[in-house]
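Could someone model zinc ion with this protein?
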Amino acid sequence: MKYPVLGTLTLLLALQVGALAQNVRPSQGTVPKASTRKKAPASSESVTATETSTVVIPSWLPSSGPQQPAATLLHDLQHTVLDLRFDWAKQQVIGTATLTVRPHFQSQSQLVLDAKGFDIRNIRLLLGNGKEKALTYGYDKRQLVVNLDRSYARTETYQVRIAYVAKPNELPAGGSAAITSDKGLFFINPLGTEKGKPRQIWTQGETENNSAWFPTIDKPNQRMTQEIRLTVDGQYKTLSNGLLVASKNNADGTRTDTWKQALPAAPYLTMIAVGDFAVVKDTWRGKAVDYYVEPKFAGTAKAVFGNTPQMLDFFSKKFGVEYPWEKYAQIAVRDYVSGAMENTSAVVHGEGIQATRRELLDQNFDWVIAHEVVHHWFGNYVTCESWANLPLNESFADYGEFLWTEYKYGADAAAMVQQTSLNHYLQEAEDKRVPLIRYTYRDKEDMFDRHSYQKGGRVLHMLRKYVGDEAFYLALNQYLTRNKYTAVEVDELRMVFEEVTGEDLKWFFDQWFLQRGHPELRITHSYNNGQVSLRVQQQQDTVYTPVYRLPVAVAVWGNSNQPTIHNITVTKADQQFVFSSSQRPNLVKFDDEAQLLAKIDEELSQEELLYQFQHARNYLQKYQAIDGLRTKVGDLTVSAMLRNALNDKFWGVRVAAVEALKRYKGAEGGAVRKEIQRVATTDTRSEVRAAAITTLNSFSNEDFGSVYEAALNDSSYVVISAALGALTRNPTVNSQAKISSLQETPNTRVITALGGYYALNGHLDQYDWFLSHVETLQEAELYTFLPNFGQFMQRMPPIEREKGVKKLEMLARNAPSYLVRLGAYKGLSALAERSQELKTVLQDIRAKEKDEGLKGMYNLL
Ligand SMILES: [Zn+2]
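Reply:
Sure, complex below.
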């Protein structure tokens, strides 16, 4: 599964709350004060009694949850046959499930199934030859306990058929940051009353939500083959796992499609979708590769998904296991509750992946497509045995984004992926540090975090760097081959790496997979009498995180154009390394390949950083130099470096340089601004042009109105949005007509930017425009759009303002998404300054809010 945008925002929000609420954070070298925020963990921490009396509990340490073992296997699922039809009006699934099962070890006289909120019509034991026997059962609306006619031994396979009605829409709501609802099956626009929205049915099984629409043993350590017959209105397309083996028109105008998956997969990977889709066909080694999109996006489906066959090829070769499943389909659905989901051979994406050609100028979706492709080996072919081992799915999928980028777009682009992952993880680590593999989570949904994804991906990268490419891929091949179609835990991964390399790797797996935290390193160096001394201090809290063993490369740059590489292994909290060098080096670079998952504070002089930029061998080294010199931009050598960087061949470096030149006040002012103006108008990459516009806008005493006006005609929506941002505080007469015409642009980024522009510059003419977009924007966009709407209404006449206030109040109280409620609340706040009545309303909204995170946020506002 891949995080949705919303999940990320939710997380950011949580971080905001966390960071602000946190009043005690132990800092290095000072005597830590006792924190009042967290209680000591109940147990399982390796802290002695004497230690706890003086040790501060870090705010990022979550209290420990209960032990979460893998589900005990009483039965093994073998095969599932589903016959399904749908009652759109009642949002119900009318189904028959025929399960073939076998006791796992002990003989069983009962079969316990997960089945959430069903009406059970009857349960039969199938005796063969068309004979059957009614079975009794107990049912508490969560689990169905079927009483068998006798005890069955593990040598005996039997079949049970259950006729039921599933009512996923009537289940109590739940969810997580990664999956915003756990209903399992979703009817979109079921009555056809929502204008402009197609009618669809789709499912989201992970984590244990498929049991909301068919009875199963809803655990990741089960595995089954399946056959799903979907009876739908004749006009709809269907999709499920495996192959479409039959499609039959029925007398009543419906059609029954039969999808069959002959290879076994875990129940959470089962999916169905129904709706009006265009199916764009591709192929790879004779297997169908299909893209299901809304008909109006049929023309660009290949532009979005077209690298999929190449990815199947790339990863088949890398892993040494040819893509095993019967086909590869991807579908984009409305109102999806996650980012994307790797259902075996039938991946679901959110509607946002459907892009126009123009939108594709600014971005591609390879990263999420590659993520789900990789799951077909790591997750689907070999599956984590329990959610505690989720990183065995997600870390590999996350790392797959890096591997694909490295292969397709080069080392610099890959380094940028790596940088983003590290930052994402470090952000989360401000507030939460847990082991990657954790058997004591409180809620299984908590596993879907930046640890399981981004930290895990980075850990795999370090493992690859440590053992080398050949051993890395050989070990992965053995792991996949040996464990195919089974469930695994992390030790199985460790053991193949140990077998291949011949080395005991317990140290690596312990510190990175089983312990929490990350190294926080202070790096200094000095030169004396022909010797370079490098000091590495591990400054992390070593009560709750380990002292790390870190194999790492150090590059010592003498006077030649090639550095001497020293491979060292850091093992102590404070350690000195000595290298001989005939002269004072120009640069001593710790972690030369920038592969460590760590927070590194490296003391380098201005000269060294300039040298580093000049001799950098990758994007990250250039970025570090720019970042390290950010405060010295006024110096001529530094601004010269940045102007040089504006012409770098890699666009990420150009963005970094443009951003570092914000509010530049040095001696080269005129020349610098002229350069940035050139970048804003001519750079080939839209992100760079957009960043340049934002930087121009930071020069408050200068008028770049004509540059912004020209940018409104840019091909890129990102650039247009940046220009709107720049014009917000300095509107020009010449741009007004163009801005009005942008109101019709079908791009949410532009609409959001326009919202910001009109917040300050709009008038009554835009009132209806605002109102209509309040209805159509998605949750994450509304979070910024609604505060702008509030600000805009400050200038509206009383009647319009009153109507807008009612709308915002309704959303602040009742919107299902708390991001929307918060956005609406902020919109109301913008109007409350002059209204005692509104202040009372806000107080009441705060008092009635039930979401803990949002309540915390309100307390801080
Ligand atoms: Zn994933």
